[in-house]
Design goal:
Two copies of one chain form a homodimer.
Chain A lengths: L23 E7 L1 H4 L7 H11 L3 E8 L3 H14 L2 E5 L10 H8 L4 E3 L1 H13 L13 E3 L3 E3 L8 E6 L2 E6 L3 H18 L5 E9 L4 H7 L1 H4 L5 E8 L2 E10 L2 H19 L3 E3 L5 H11 L4 E5 L5 H6 L9 E7 L2 H8 L3 H7 L4 H15 L3 E7 L14 E8 L2 E8 L4 H21 L1
Parallel strand pairs in A: 1-2, 1-3, 3-8, 13-14, 13-15
Antiparallel strand pairs in A: 4-5, 6-7, 7-8, 9-11, 9-12, 10-11, 15-16, 16-17
Helix pairs in contact in A: 2-6, 3-4, 10-15
Chain lengths: 433, 433
């Protein structure tokens, strides 16, 4: 894990000209379930991206339990460092949703019950046939002096509290609600804080190279300072380079990045599958749609993950015709017409079988392309000759069949995910040729 | 989001008998990519569960950037409150992996290069054909006085540093490496801290009831104090009740929970799909395996998610024969023999079509059960009569077909996930009857 960040020299301070170089933000997630490991805190991740897009530097994420005193303390501590404090979670109807109490205590303010907000919440529940219970009224408690942030997705509204020149933003914990509300609140924050710059980022996604290999090709970019910076991050099957520029206008930021974009593209060549953060399944989908090609999939060890990734994208029915998950050898024979002798001679995890699967998927669905994956995801089922992690991928395209053999490391989930990534990348590379 | 936690009264203090009631832990995740929202910090989640299992109370998670000074500050601040500080991330080979420097600075210690550790890392890289570059030696830097924690999964070792009676544990950022290492280190910590109790938890998973409905049925449990406590947590399509008991021995803890387990079971009835945290796909798989039944799946809007969930479980080939993702109407006709007139008259998202899909999946695969899902996942494609979120599910089982209609809220991902959950639950309910 490695990210190189050099903050732009052009940062201009608005709030504390003498002491601060940057406008800082902190995110507090309230939720005992997060501390217990019941659930993963994903909100701080997208909230960070939205805040970074405003030109705010996020220096800290904190998770505290649903406890009035600890929330109050966390808010006060964060306000000593940060101009914007975002608190997510704990706005629900139950007695343990104490974020309003905690923030109010931290700011030494009171809260009031807002009948207008309550009538909106009540209408929403009634329309959905949800029984009204008294505790739901807790969602209509508004901190003294706060602006109400409407909830486009769920019931509990958010709040924006100004504390001198600082802002505290309260968001629900449900990710889809928090995201929509923060996107709406971003423009309000920009005006309130009189943020004069914009931050533009561009994600360059690479597959087929390891993180050190990408780093070696982009070393000068990763260590450069100035208004444009470059970071690197790896996850299973993919490495991301992120360019970030800070400037007065969006156009100026884009212009600043242009020469570095060019460098990245020339150094990474066809390993670069996206120059704007588009995930691989969307890149593949876009190529298929543009070339008006259709695809049929046959999966074994990935068990439906290739097709579920492809169908994550709305409109994927234009190019994905069907997918057959033939988990059982009998089904490989029945649904995919894999000759029994191939299965007997080479085994289900073999080049011959995966090619037969791809060809049959294409031919029977009448598509332009047939993609197949077979392998041993583990943890059992491996042997010396065919170890756990062995994955074969084939793409059948009219007059030729491409076939690749991989030996992936990691747990069952890693192996399946890497298999999906390699399969989608094979389609991409074939379509680019 | 609502969790009610009451810490057991039986907590016994070892480290600071006069000032502390509980042995506290904090988790620090180091990674600029986390603050930038590049990635979601999932480590703190499973690390919390492992620490809770030792009887430690986790009061805080903190995320800081890859910055020596800020890591040092975070470690010092955490040690003022916590007996165990776990730092994850930043042990890699690149110049931005500065966790060793940061923790060493925070503890006012030095680090040394350990040739034995380096020879192990070097061997590992060579065996995998990875080119050795000088920066990799950074992974062999060990803090003065630290114990080395071997890495079973990857290259960078972890470290355990004793600071008087406190412990600082350094773990890699890669989740599979961090998890394995923490599990190994747990027993070491238990001995070092002389933790006299065990914590036992039991997760009760519910579907088909909303969080307030579950809360209403378990209100007395959720508000009880004492050695056994109960928490509640909801995620799309599922609500969890967690019982936690603290006692001298595992057996004593289990015995303490027994009467509450009984209450939960009787109050939630068949809505309870798991009394030990087993995910729904495994519960369904277990039922199928026990009854020696086989299943074939036909999916439309879920695009392979039902089968990928089922095949998450090793050994699922015993009961899952195949899955057909017929994303296109032509494929519903070809692969699933859905009569064209049904598609024309009722549309692909209808009770008649989903029943035909389930029946065909079962009959053609020769399985005992056929499960089918069709719906409108959005964001487009909805109409007044058939809005986004409308999902039909059918289960064909010999002489009868069960069919259900749902109208799910949320984004494309939520709707697909809720559809999968409802489909798996339909199988479970049918098998229980």
């Amino acid at each position: 894990m490695c990210v190189k960040i050099h903050t732009g020299k052009s940062a201009i301070c608005i709030l504390r000209p003498t002491t601060m170089k940057h406008v800082q933000a902190e995110i507090i997630s309230a939720g005992t379930e997060l501390l217990l490991g019941f659930t993963v805190s994903s909100n701080s991740s997208f909230l960070s991206r939205i805040l970074a897009g405003l030109g705010l530097d996020v220096y800290k994420h904190v998770v505290v339990g649903d406890n009035t005193g600890r929330i109050a303390h966390a808010v006060r501590a964060a306000l000593r460092r940060a101009h914007v404090v975002v608190v997510t979670g704990g706005l629900g109807p139950t007695l343990d949703d104490v974020t309003v109490d905690g923030v109010a205590a931290g700011l030494k303010r009171t809260w009031r019950f807002d009948p207008f907000t309550w009538s909106k919440i009540e209408r929403r529940f009634r329309a959905r046939g949800i029984e009204i219970i008294p505790s739901m009224k807790r969602q209509a408690r508004i901190i003294q002096g706060a602006e109400i942030l409407p909830n486009r997705v769920g019931s509990a509204p958010g709040q924006l509290v100004r504390v001198q020149k600082h802002c505290v933003v309260l968001l629900p914990g449900v990710p889809s609600e928090a995201r929509a509300m923060m996107e709406d609140a971003a423009q309000r924050l920009k005006r309130l804080l009189r943020l004069p710059w914009v931050i533009e980022s561009r994600d360059f996604l690479v597959t087929g190279l390891s993180e050190p290999q990408v780093e070696a090709r982009a070393e000068d970019l990763l260590t450069m300072g100035g208004a444009v910076t470059c970071g690197i991050y790896a996850c299973p099957g993919s490495v991301t380079l992120r360019l970030t520029a800070k400037a007065r206008t969006r156009q100026a930021a884009v212009k600043l990045m242009a020469p570095f974009e060019k460098k990245i593209k020339s150094r990474l060549g066809s390993h670069l599958y996206s120059a704007d953060g588009t995930p691989l399944e969307q890149v593949v989908g876009g190529l298929l749609a543009r070339k008006r090609l259709t695809l049929a999939v046959a999966e074994s060890c990935t068990g439906g993950l290739v097709s579920s990734r492809l169908t994550d994208t709305p409109g994927s029915s234009r190019y994905l015709r069907s997918s057959i998950v033939a988990y059982d050898n009998r089904e490989k024979i029945r649904l995919l017409k894999v000759p029994k002798r191939l299965l007997v001679r080479h085994g289900a995890v073999s080049a011959d079988v995966v090619k037969a699967m791809a060809k049959s998927a294409r031919k029977s669905a009448g598509t332009d392309l047939g993609l197949a994956v077979t392998g041993i995801a583990g943890p059992t089922g491996g042997s010396k000759a065919k170890p756990v992690g062995l994955v074969y991928i084939a793409l059948d395209h009219k007059n030729r069949a491409l076939c690749e053999r991989y030996h992936f490391s990691g747990e069952r989930k890693d192996i399946r995910d890497k298999g999906v990534q390699a399969a989608l990348n094979l389609v991409r590379r074939a379509l680019l040729e």
